[in-house]
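Example (one chain per record):
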Amino acid sequence: QVQLVESGGGLAQAGGSLRLSCAASGRTFSSYGMGWFRQAPGKEREFVGGIRWSDDRTYYTYYTDSLKPRFTISRDNAKNTVYLQMNSLKPEDTAVYYCAAVRSGGHYYTAADYAYWGQGTQVTVSS
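Predicted structure:
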């Protein structure tokens, strides 16, 4: 199992940046695919992006197309941490952001695919 704790959320102005962190417990963190989701009030949880590993032990990122130009996911296995760098923030990015983990190397775009979740961190972008 893996436990996830997000941090780095807060208030940002439109056009600004935030970097979210997701710290994971567990010895086998490197074998987990990680995803970031967000959920705005009254809306469904939305896939932001993910980072997956492949058989050649390389990690690949993938994103919701509309967010790809502004959001970047990375991971540091030595720190058991995955990051979400968010640039050029917009008020519509306001949401609770969640990281999630799946013990597989595939592409996973839906919340139901992920077995482990953090508690979420609030991001609020003011205009």
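Caption: The CA atoms of residues 7 and 21 lie 5 Å apart.
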